Amino acid sequence: MSSTTATAIPAELTQAPAAAPPALSRKAVTRVVVSSWIGNTIEFYDFLVYGLAAALVFGKLFFPTVSPLAGTLAAFATFGVGFVARPLGGLIFGHLGDTIGRKRTLVITLCGMGMATFLVGALPTYAQIGIWAPILLVVLRFLQGLVVGGEWGGAMLVVIESAPPGRRGMLGSIPQTGGFSGQLLATGLFALVALLPEDQMLSWGWRVPFLISAVLVAVGLYIRSQIEETPIFQATQAQVAKRTESPVTEVFRDSWRKLVLIMVLRFAESVPFFLATVFAVSYATTQLGVSKQTMLGVVMATCVLAFPMHALFGAISDKVGRRPVYIFGALVAVLGAFPFFYMLETNNFALMFLGYVLLINIGHNAINAVEPAFFTELFGPRTRYSGAAIGAQLGAIVAGGFTPFIAKALSAADNNGWTWVASYVVITALISVVAGFLAPETSRRDLSAE
């Protein structure tokens, strides 16, 4: 981290650990990776199931008094509220993760997410309690965002801090696929409930994916309780006890440039992902006449392919560095935006899947696989949780949360076309390309040193 500030920092807080922390056994590392992947899967299942519900049913259930377009926009806006809350979650849980520990903080985030998601599934609709229904929906979505804002940084961090130096990219990419396994679970359950007659789907079927969250969280809590605190955090606990200021304060004062860098880097990752998995599902089913089952099938196939692609790109980043892989993925997003929509228009499963492979499995997955190692390696151990979580979640607001809303508005302004939407992807991804060239290479960094 930067040390150019004029504010004096106690010497004991600026020193690296006297000795490198002991390496974990291979079995212990495997346990950490698996537990982080499962926990991240559950967290993102909870978060992403909301996106599918917003695209498919929330407009009718919670905003029935407005036009279909306005109802969809309102539903997507509530989806974005979760992203507004994510940086606040990064602040709160980043502070906790850098003070009370990574493991304890991750248990808190998992419990909080499960509670908020279950309550969404139990929420009365507009027809039952009127205006209170969308208000409570927004509140619960805010709580979801708050919790997931602290989950991502911690789940990635425990793996990166536990992994051998030459395998941080590959091992860190595995729990990152939790977003896809969560999407796979959410999409699979929605595909099943979508088979119900529409009246049953709208009355009770949509609730099932939310209510099942309670079972998943119970499993996740058991698994997460089995891991140990990371060796690097344990090695710095004596320094943490002597801390005179919040790690959040320290990050904003000393590392604000790194936070801005992470925010901009996230454009090429978040915009294509939420465009393809949320907006495109709604656009294809309402404007292009593609069946819901077909779109859900395409998304599920894309999620399955994401697992080997993440491991591949993560391993490559251990060999050639984080920056080259990141820049490659961002360039693919630039080149793949227009072909993605051309293939979507064909209403042909194979071609639509090919479009998703190009934009998501190659472009997005290259970026997404590298982010855990890339972002956490930018910071020292005392502020690593705060820095990675806050930077990533600030980027999530700008780049991810309102992408479905912005895309829907651009499409409406373009006479329900997609040219402006694809152009938006190209512009945001180009910004990330520039940021990638400006970013430092971090793959050889000693994580135990400040």
From TrEMBL:
The chain crosses the membrane at residues 44-63, 69-93, 105-123, 129-159, 180-198, 204-223, 259-283, 295-313, 325-343, 349-367, 388-406, 418-439. Residues 32-443 form the Major facilitator superfamily (MFS) profile domain. Pfam families: MFS_1 (PF07690). PROSITE patterns: MFS. GO terms for molecular function: transmembrane transporter activity. Gene3D superfamilies: MFS general substrate transporter like domains. Coiled coil: none annotated. Its main location: membrane. Keywords: Cell membrane, Membrane, Transmembrane, Transmembrane helix, Transport. It is a multi-pass membrane protein. GO terms for cellular component: plasma membrane. This is MHS family MFS transporter. The lineage of its organism: Bacteria, Pseudomonadati, Pseudomonadota, Alphaproteobacteria, Acetobacterales.
